[in-house]
Amino acid sequence: AQLEYTVIKPILEKKLNSADRPSWQEIAPESPATKRYWALWVFLHLKDGVRYCRWESYNGSSCRWQLILPKSRIPEVLRETHDSASGRHFGVMKTLSKTRERFYWDRLRADVEKWCRECHACEPRKGPKTRTKGRLQPYNVGAPFERMGLDILGPSPVTTEGNRYVLVLMDYFTKWPEAIPIPDQEASTVAEELVRSWISYYGVLMILHSD
């Protein structure tokens, strides 16, 4: 079955005939996937007539044999590692880890990601692909200073008076703006300037809008 896997077939045939890795000139006409298997030449081994890829941890403390899977068997394996009762429809990373414990094939990660992404059973748990946004609604005001908007601009270079921010106020009805320099964004500073520069002149507002 492995020899039927056309991507790795040239590599397997050369492995059966020689222990020496073929030169790049010999492998250059092959597909990109075949070249990736060529790069793994030293990790490919024959055990009981079956080809495996030997995986080692970074520090060499552990090793496992991954069966090189023909393309036709990939769906069967992914159904077992993701869809089955033991797979439990885990996410990409857990499914990937479970699959790599026993199997290897070219572009394994991409196939696992695609399988998990297109899994119908997982779809309800993923939530909507796009967030639903509420419709914008106009806010009607009927008198000056009924509703005020407040925001802070900055930080900017420090002025000679020690200010780095600008407290911006605007009346929703008249569109009258005020820009007040302040040294910081502390709540006490903003409240003090709001009272001193606006309320003391125009009176108490009904609604203050700020993010």
Automatic annotation (TrEMBL):
Transmembrane segments: none annotated. Residues 140-211 form the Integrase catalytic domain. GO terms for molecular function: nucleic acid binding. This is Integrase catalytic domain-containing protein. InterPro entries: Gypsy_RT_Integrase-like (IPR052160), Integrase_cat-core (IPR001584), Integrase_H2C2 (IPR041588), RNaseH-like_sf (IPR012337), RNaseH_sf (IPR036397). SUPFAM superfamilies: Ribonuclease H-like (SSF53098). It comes from the Eukaryota. GO terms for biological process: DNA integration. It holds the Pfam family Integrase_H2C2. Coiled coil: none annotated.
